[in-house]
Design brief:
By secondary structure, this protein is α/β, with parallel strands linked by helices. It is 39% helix and 17% strand. The structure holds pyridoxal-5'-phosphate.
């Protein structure tokens, strides 16, 4: 087995154990492999090990990697789902709309409108999560929990987007209980939107939270998608790009 294959197995075991611990069905939590800063070869190894969903933070890097992986013609490659999980500035919406399958970091209507307008007709609707700011911080990305329902109501009217859920990136909290408590706030917003009766929530099923360091707490709080990078691909090297 390659190292990436080994690490993937360990992460799947952690997810399964966390599901069992939380009394949740195994398979109720999807793994998003976060490949930012790693090359197409690392993605290839993960695809050959069976992974199909990848997350990228830096849009230009992601677009290049998507093309490089596609050119490899891997078995299963046509089923890959690429998720944008980094900040989306207005001048990058077109790249996201044209190249990614998901945009998880939508926190403003203006960005959602641009993504919808720029999503090519030949592609499936862009799958979207509302990014929440669950631990305060004026400067952090994400919409305040109290404003999430209003944003959801606007997004479901946009023709080329499919609202799939919420995502959050809380700061590190000390210990399992503190992590679980912060993640529970995102799960509560998800439940509130789902119970709202808004039209256009047919596929509203995703709570994207939990990373290498806190996936157990996120699963305990109701995560349906954990985003794991270093636990699969190793430490990242943030050399100047
Ligand atoms: C980098 C990143 C991750 C993965 O973090 P790890 O700690 O390496 O697992 C998950 N989500 C987002 C939004 C990230 O930027």
């Amino acid at each position: 087995m390659t190292t990436i294959e080994n690490k993937l197995q360990q992460i799947h075991e952690r997810i399964a154990a966390a599901c069992a611990q939380a009394g949740r069905a195994s398979g109720s939590v999807q793994l998003l492999s976060v490949s930012k800063t790693f090359g197409a070869d690392a993605v290839r190894e993960a695809v050959l090990a069976g992974e199909r969903s990848f997350g990228e933070n830096y849009i230009q890097e992601g677009v290049e990697k998507i093309a490089a992986v596609r050119a490899m013609g891997l078995p299963g490659g046509e089923a890959l789902q690429w998720h944008c999980i980094g900040p989306i500035q207005s001048n990058k919406t077109r790249l996201v709309a044209e190249h990614f399958d998901w945009a998880q970091t939508v926190d403003r209507l203006k960005i959602a409108e641009r993504l919808s307008a720029q999503r090519p007709e030949g592609l499936a609707p862009l799958q979207v999560c509302i990014q929440l700011n669950v631990d305060g911080g004026e400067t952090k990305a994400g919409v305040a929990p109290q404003q999430a329902l209003e944003l959801a109501a606007a997004i479901v009217r946009l023709p080329r987007l499919a609202l799939r859920g919420v995502m959050s990136i809380p700061d590190d909290a000390p210990g399992f209980e503190a992590q679980r408590e912060v993640h529970a706030r995102a799960a509560a917003v998800f439940a509130q939107i789902r119970a709202s009766g808004l039209p256009g929530l047919e596929r509203f099923d995703t709570v994207s939270m939990g990373m290498t360091g806190d996936l157990e707490a996120a699963v305990a709080a109701g995560s349906t998608m954990v985003r794991v990078g270093s636990g699969i691909f190793g430490q990242r090297d943030y050399a100047p790009r």
